[in-house]
Amino acid sequence: MSNASPVTPKVGFVSLGCPKALVDSEQILTQLRAEGYDTAKSYDGADLVIVNTCGFIDAAVQESLDAIGEALHENGKVIVTGCLGAKKDAAGDDIIQKVHPKVLAVTGPHALAEVMDAVHLHLPKPHAPFLDLVPPQGVKLTPRHYAYLKISEGCNHRCSFCIIPSMRGDLVSRPIADVMMEAENLFKAGVKELLVISQDTSAYGVDVKFRMGFWNGKPVKTHMTQLVTALGELAAQHGAWVRLHYVYPYPHVDAIIPLMAEGRVLPYLDVPLQHAHPDVLKRMKRPANGEKNMERIQAWRAMCPDITIRSTFIAGFPGETETEFEYLLDFLREAEIDRLGCFAYSPVEGASANELPNAVPEEVREERRGRVMQLQEGISKKRLQSKVGKTIRVLIDEVNRNGGVARSVADAPEIDGVVYVKAPYEPHIKLKVGEFFDVKVTASDAHDLWAEA
Ligand code: SF4
Fold it and tell me: In terms of DSSP bridges, do strands 38-40 and 48-53 run parallel, antiparallel, or are they unpaired?
């Protein structure tokens, strides 16, 4: 039965962008529910629409502007938040206000209080807040069995291709007790996989000088290794997985690999390397030393042979010579990264890299991206092939008449491959969404696996 009365104000929500934006959306939706607002599934049924935008690359900007246009056309009352909200054009004007002057308010990312102020102004708060309507874990946009846990906001680096620090500001780490409390609430609510996200997970706590906090009556430092250890313990109590994203290859990251080898957190490391050639990395102003990356990967594999390494790379960065690009290909051949994404360099407005000399023509950027992906296809195929015949643990995401679609420890949702699980022959064994199964891998291709329960 719905608790909403006919007078309960309804807010429509459009959430675009990366997992960090998704967490912002979840926090806004949680606050709306806490204050007694209801959510509407269509523009028609909404008294007001909030659009959470992405402003990272040109295609995302266009998608966000189109979504705002659609919401204005279909509903009329629109509040915009997110990365695009903080973006200015070359003349220094607010992009959204210029294209869509009818929006009621515009905020940048991670601006819960400002968004709520705008909602209160344009759709006044209902009198009796249904505080009890909000579950302790908040409102989640992900399926019930996995959730993102954002541990910090912003970034202290200034990579020359990136405008995130100008949109989201410097690193601000969440207090460790808050992070642990949220993780516990999520596990208690049935989450089976927690995905730790931030702009730079390995920098957690740098801004607060690794301040000491308390969790379960014990002192815990605001530091990545202590956080990961505590999350691993909590996950073990709830029989759940913890997966780490956006970890930079700093030396202290080595300390979490034994935790992976011991099975306390998933042996999966998402390390955005972006390039391999030291000169390109220098022009990119990347944190962590490029020359040591290969040694580091080899050391991680020696400590934890089952580790899955995921990374992203940029092809055709300004000034990238054919020799530098081939250096990248050689690195990839040797590193055999398990999961790899490659983007052709996209000159994001406001990024200092656009001022660098010797821009690479678009067709060359695309061609180089294609060469990386072609090389990776062979590597991925070979690495997945080595899993055929093995028994692996999977988490079921979806059940259909053929069986189920699942993910193994090597597959993060949305970005990696999947495991297609054949429906079990035994009628008493039923695949269930959000449950773990041990399956035997029967086949593979360059991205996915097939298995029998
Ligand atoms: S580390 Fe670099 S790419 Fe990542 S958010 Fe910070 S500035 Fe951007």
Answer: unpaired
